[in-house]
Specification:
heterodimer; A: alpha+beta; Rossmann fold; six-stranded antiparallel β-sheet; 9 helices; B: 301 residues; MetI-like fold
Chain lengths: 362, 301
């Protein structure tokens, strides 16, 4: 019973529109990540859900209740902030119990909940310390604990891990995922880190310039990006883009690509799931580095090897294909055997095609 | 240069580092000592004279140390020095000043802190305008406001009374204090307020539970400013307090000014010392906080 419905939300800072027709339906118990580059409006959207920012148009429902003009305190939410925002004069226990004390929860209940959250986050031995005596990771745990003790149906996270070092970030990411599974609460999580998004989310809303570009399962965004922007933002290294030409013929759809060798002019992409019947003309082709295979014969792109980056588990090889830089993810051993030139097979089932004018998937 | 020296000192074996005597350093100390003397000598003369009997003052130089130091003049100044026809000493003024000081300080600081917090952390329509008005208020000379203030207070029946002078001190203290508190609270991250709002705390709960406990340094700065400012005030006390509530500074002036027969310098000086003591004590006790608070406000604001 803690669904979240965001309906056609528009928000302006003066003349600047920071949220444009944002429309999301988030199911109960989902872990939704608002992902996007700096300034895309993801934190503003989270603040609007929290009630910390007014919206000019549209509505927000939490658990079926219209809360568009309701104070943050009355929305039944808890939030974790990027800067932790711990109350510096209170102890850890004081920080965690503040919200409960404000709401006049009975003392016994407060103690029980604080101890429960402290045990869950393994900060029981820190309860009497002041925030200034804690490390960054400990502060983050306290900030999460402060949200947990409220036992609200909805938790909001505003880039909670971005102030931690890489190792700690990975640990806390796992911790947060575990908490989501334990509590089963609805969580909304803002980040600009696509790894965090991919690993944590049940749903991702990828935003750009106040617009939700795509909202769906992480695999959908990864495998079937709705636009060039989504394709380029998700995945590391990012998707390779090549300019091509579509030529539908009777039997299938021919795709002409630069650098196509082996006597071929085009590869057949008739099996591609076109949204609308394919039209002849220019097209942008997106290829994931791990979907490209090196082959000896058959239709393939002729590439000149630029360099190979060994990354331990695998290698990343970079090729020059008719003036375009293309990356290919290889097994570590294969990376060592790359010659001066290579032939790159086009994965006709796994590519993405975009209209170069609208930048949308076709 | 100094950084390099420090690093060497840290990494090599600990060696006592002597003072480096340079012309610049000598000049610096000379300037500091002269400045200190400039402010200390009058104080020393006043203190010195207050310990002498009258014949010694008549006979000697003001720099001569007392032959037989005695606090007799202090006792006289406190209990029986005459202000006009009234000979009850300066203690009357002392207690008047205390009665004016305590409520004025408490309320001006409390109101200014709430104002500063509201202006810094709760952007509302017109908050910039109010801030601008406060800036203006902080720089308007007293003389401009005196007459209108007298008229307003006499209209509401507070002119020449203890509540009247307290209200005046609170109002005159607000612009500067509000700006100080606003600058201090501007340095506190807004996310703290957001977190508290989500925790369900309202405007005053956030102020008293979260902001005020963080404000020790700036509260001490405000306390020093107000205690010394209000204690040393002469003009407002003279105009607004009324005959019954004249503060110590005004009483001091009356004691020094009312001469019957010979001028008793030692009593005058003792009364001066008594009047100057409270702010001096405040400075000595809290000077360290004062510097810390000023810098805290400056860096963060």
């Amino acid at each position: 019973m803690s669904t979240i419905r965001i309906q056609n939300v528009n928000k302006f800072y003066g003349a600047l529109q920071v949220l444009k027709n944002v429309d999301l339906a988030i199911g109960s118990g989902e872990f939704t990540v608002l992902l996007g580059p700096s300034g895309c409006g993801k934190s503003t959207l989270l603040s609007a859900i929290a009630g910390l920012e007014e919206i000019q148009e549209g509505g927000i429902e939490l658990g079926g209740r219209d809360v568009t003009h309701v104070e943050p305190a009355k929305r039944d939410i808890a939030m974790v902030f990027q800067s932790y925002a711990l109350y510096p004069t209170m102890t850890v226990a004081g920080n965690m119990s503040f919200g409960l004390r404000v709401n006049r929860t009975p003392k016994a209940e407060i103690d029980q909940r604080v101890n429960w959250a402290a045990r869950l986050l393994q900060i029981e031995n820190l309860l009497d310390r002041k925030p200034s005596q804690l490390s960054g990771g400990q502060r983050q745990r306290v900030a999460i604990g402060r949200a947990l003790v409220r036992k609200t149906p909805v938790y909001l996270f505003d880039e909670p891990l971005s102030n931690l070092d890489a190792k700690l970030r990975t640990e806390m990411r796992v911790e947060i995922k575990r908490l989501h599974q334990t509590l089963g609460a609805t969580m909304i999580y803002v980040t600009h880190d696509q790894i965090e998004a991919m690993t944590l989310a049940t749903h991702i809303a990828l935003m750009r310039a106040g617009v939700v570009e795509q909202f769906g399962h992480p695999e959908d965004l990864y495998q079937r990006p709705a636009s060039l922007f989504v394709a380029g933002f998700i995945g590391s290294p990012s998707m390779n883009f090549l300019p091509g030409t579509l030529a539908p013929n009777g039997a299938g759809v021919g795709l002409e690509l630069p650098g196509l060798g082996g006597g071929q002019q085009a590869v057949d992409v008739g099996s591609y799931a076109f949204a609308a019947p394919a039209k002849a003309g220019e097209i942008t082709v997106g290829l994931r580095p791990e979907d490209i295979e090196l082959v000896n014969d058959g239709p393939a792109l002729e590439g000149k090897t630029l360099f190979v980056e060994p990354m331990g588990a695998d290698s990343l090889a970079w090729f020059d294909v008719a003036g375009h830089r293309v990356s290919v993810r290889l097994k570590a051993d294969d990376g060592k055997r790359v010659g001066e030139t290579a032939r790159l097979a086009v994965p006709t089932e796994k590519l993405s095609l975009f209209d170069p004018n609208t930048e949308n998937r076709v | 240069m100094t950084v390099a020296v420090d690093q060497v000192a840290v990494t090599s074996a600990p060696k006592p580092r002597g003072f480096q005597i340079t012309p610049g350093r000598i000049g610096l100390y000379a300037f500091l000592i002269i400045s200190a003397l400039f402010f200390l000598i009058p104080l020393l003369i006043v203190f010195n004279t207050s310990l002498k009997p009258m014949d010694e003052i008549r006979a000697g130089d003001i720099f001569d140390l007392p032959i037989d130091p005695s606090f007799a003049a202090w006792a006289e100044a406190w209990t029986s020095a005459c202000t006009g026809r009234n000979c009850e000493g300066i203690r009357v003024g002392f207690w008047n000043s205390v009665k004016i000081l305590v409520p004025s300080v408490i309320f001006s600081i409390l109101i200014a802190a709430i104002n500063g917090y509201a202006l810094a952390q709760w952007r509302f329509k017109g908050s910039e305008l109010i801030l601008g008005a406060l800036m203006l208020g902080a720089f308007i000379p007293y003389q401009v406001i005196l007459y209108p203030m007298v008229r307003i207070l006499s209209t509401v029946g507070l002119y020449g009374s203890l509540p009247g002078i307290i209200v005046v001190h609170i109002i005159f203290g607000l612009p500067v204090l509000t700006l100080i508190f606003r600058n201090f609270y501007s340095g506190i991250p807004i996310e703290l307020i957001k977190a508290a709002r989500i925790d369900g705390a309202g405007f005053f709960r956030i102020f008293f539970s979260i902001m005020l406990p963080m404000s020790t340094n700036i509260l001490i700065v405000a306390l020093i400013l107000q205690v010394t400012g209000i204690w040393n005030d002469y003009l407002l006390g003279l105009i607004f307090a009324g005959r019954e509530n004249l503060p110590m500074t005004v009483q001091l002036n009356n004691i020094v000014g009312s001469v019957t027969g010979e001028r008793t310098f030692n009593v005058d000086m003792a009364a001066t010392m008594l009047t100057a003591l409270p702010p001096l004590i405040v400075y000595f006790l809290s000077g360290r906080y004062f510097v810390r608070g000023i810098t805290a406000g400056a860096v963060k604001g």
